[in-house]
């Protein structure tokens, strides 16, 4: 389940990959996450940025 759906208070708006407001920078643990989907890559082209409404654990 993505972090945003776990009650973690993060700035967000759409929860469906369109606004990009939930983008976070990973400081550690990137290897625990599943690869970005094509639509997430379109919103976050930096490797350590993920959308909190979309990123999932492996
Ligand atoms: S809340 Fe809009 S992209 Fe995640």
Share of helical residues: 10-25%
Q: Beta fraction of the residues? A: 5-15%
Spans of at least 5 consecutive residues with low confidence: none
Please indicate the count of domains: 1
Question: Would you mind describing this structure in some detail?
Answer:
- This protein has 58 residues and is low in regular secondary structure.
- It has one domain (3-51).
- Helix content is 10%, strand content 10%.
- It is built from 1 helix and 2 strands.
- The chain has one helix at residues 38-43; strands at residues 23-25, 49-51.
- Strands 1-2 form a two-stranded antiparallel ribbon.
- The longest helix has 6 residues, at 38-43.
- It is globular.
- It starts with 22 loop residues before the first strand and ends in a 7-residue tail after the last strand.
- The mean pLDDT is 90.
- FE2/S2 (inorganic) cluster (FES) binds at residues 12-15, 17-22, 51, 53.
């Amino acid at each position: 389940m993505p972090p945003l759906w776990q009650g973690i208070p993060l700035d967000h708006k759409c929860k469906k990959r369109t606004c990009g407001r939930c983008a976070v920078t990973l400081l550690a643990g990137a290897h625990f996450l599943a690869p970005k989907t094509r639509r997430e890559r379109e919103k976050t082209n930096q490797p350590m940025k993920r959308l909190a409404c979309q990123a999932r654990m492996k």
